């Protein structure tokens, strides 16, 4: 099986996308978008991170030029990660908002 040779221009293009994404993350981090809806800043940061990660997976990891089975494994891995996060968040969001308290010293612990 022959490998696909990626041109240097593709790598420089991805480098430019990563730099622009990093700068955009920094700029949008200073702007408050929570007036649109609560959590909008987090949504924008995750959207930029998703775009950057997609570029890295497709080009640097050669998924774009690989057979469809490799792409299926990448997509199924991401879906499994989403399922795990969903279960974790469903557990986290159903817990009470209690606080952690340090137990007070008793007579048995003061010896």
Which structural class do the helices and strands define?
Answer: mainly alpha
Helix content: 55-70%
How many helices does DSSP assign? 3
SSE order, as H and E?
Answer: HHH
Instruction: Provide the residue-averaged pLDDT.
Output: 87
Biggest pleated sheet: none
Model regions low in confidence, pLDDT < 50 over at least 5 residues:
none
Nearest-angstrom radius of gyration?
Answer: 22 Å
Please tell me about this protein's structure:
The protein has 111 residues and is mostly helical. It folds into two domains: 1-62; 67-94. Helices cover 63% and strands 0% of the residues. The chain is built from three helices and no strands. The chain has helices at 8-30, 40-60, 68-93. Helix 1 (8-30) packs antiparallel against helix 2 (40-60). The longest helix has 26 residues, at 68-93. The protein is extended.
Quick recap:
The protein is mainly alpha-helical. 63% of the residues lie in helices and 0% in strands. The termini are far apart.
List key phrases describing it:
about 110 residues, mainly alpha, 2 domains, extended
Question: Helices and strands in order, then pairings?
Answer:
Blueprint: H1 8-30, H2 40-60, H3 68-93
């Amino acid at each position: 099986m022959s490998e696909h040779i990626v041109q240097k221009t593709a790598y420089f293009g991805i480098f430019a996308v990563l730099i622009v994404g990093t700068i955009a993350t920094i700029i949008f981090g200073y702007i408050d978008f929570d007036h649109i809806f609560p959590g909008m800043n987090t949504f924008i940061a995750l959207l930029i991170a998703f775009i950057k990660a997609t570029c890295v997976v497709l080009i640097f990891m050669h998924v774009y030029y690989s057979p469809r089975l490799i792409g299926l494994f990448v997509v199924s891995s991401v879906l499994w990660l989403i399922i795990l996060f969903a279960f974790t968040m469903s557990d986290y969001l159903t817990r009470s908002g209690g606080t952690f308290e340090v137990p007070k010293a008793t007579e048995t612990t003061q010896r």
